[in-house]
Amino acid sequence: MAADAMPESTLPATAAETSPDNPWPLQLLSRKLKAHIERAPAAWIEGQVIEMNRRGGNAFLTLRDVDAEISLPASVWSTVLDRQRTPLERGSRVVALVKAEFWIKTGRMNMSVKDIRPVGLGDLLARIERLRQALAAEGLFADSRKRKLPLLPHRIGLITGRDSDAKKDVLRNAALRWPAVEFDVREVAVQGNTAVGQIIAALRKLDEDPHVDVIVLARGGGALEDLLPFSNEDLIRAVAAATTPIVSAIGHEADRPILDDVADLRASTPTDAAKRIVPDVAEELAVVRQARDHLRRSIGRLVDRETDRLHALRSRPVLANPGTMIEARGEDIGRLQQRSHAAVNTAIVRALDQVNHLRAQVRALSPQKTLDRGYAVVQIVGEDQQGHTVVSNPDQAPDGAALSIRVAEGRFRAVSSGHGQHVDR
Which pTM was predicted? Predict the structure, then answer.
């Protein structure tokens, strides 16, 4: 029985269930492929037209990715192309709505273009601006992320086109400013669909080299389409992730690529980059000479000033005759000694006068002085034959009481009596 007459109920339900003894008919596989492929929705894609061939009511295109070596053949009805205001040409950048189709009879898959639109400069600028704003919102352009270039880099990494004027400008002007400068040059494609990949690869190699102090990305301007690789998001993120300072030297002032915003330094041209990454040896030598002259003048003024001070000090009398200072201090010491001796003598005299005065007061108040004036002290003699009680009242001395009388020149005894005293020597 023919394969197309076999009921499908007797065939394997899935491709995994097929076997050499129980295969699928080719038409069944073709129908399943067609059903599976045509379930895929149409998609808008972007690319560049690299081939276009019209044949009657159809046209056959080959689209290539704008950043990679990937191509896709497609077919389009001539009526779709005729709707374009500007005829499509080879090299045009377009967006196309494509739908996968499978032709059962030939077993071929075809990408059918349902709609196609050229991408104009306005569209490209708007797309770049949207990407610029999105990256800025992430903080990739913040000044805090900018790295300072070294004053004098030992080795400079240069990423530029093959044998380009930009390369020559950077190398020549840098050597004129600082002849000892060293370069590590990486020549890459700076436009086209391979540019982004080659630039990123060169950037990473230079960034990994510890001897490279700064990296310059240089191109001598060009049309907006030619500068698109320098606004590619992958390249911008690679530059932001680099640890080596990056200088953007894309000579295009009208439409600045996003690379200018993320780079640590933007130079207006490759020549300007060479001037800003290395100092001018002539200018630096002039600065050194000026510094040396200024230092020499400063030292000369300092030496002259200190010499004048030494002359002034040496001309002073105290240094002309150092003995004068010693003599003056000796005279001061003599005067101080005399003053101290006079003060001590005066204090001694005053103290002696005070002692004599106090001695006179004490003597004037002593009992002996009273006795010398004719007074006597009368005491009653006790049992121990010594005078004890001083008699100050006659009643204290009854008749017959033994008395001891003290006068200026001595003492004598007496007996108390109502009519007189009996004196006992």
Answer: 0.56
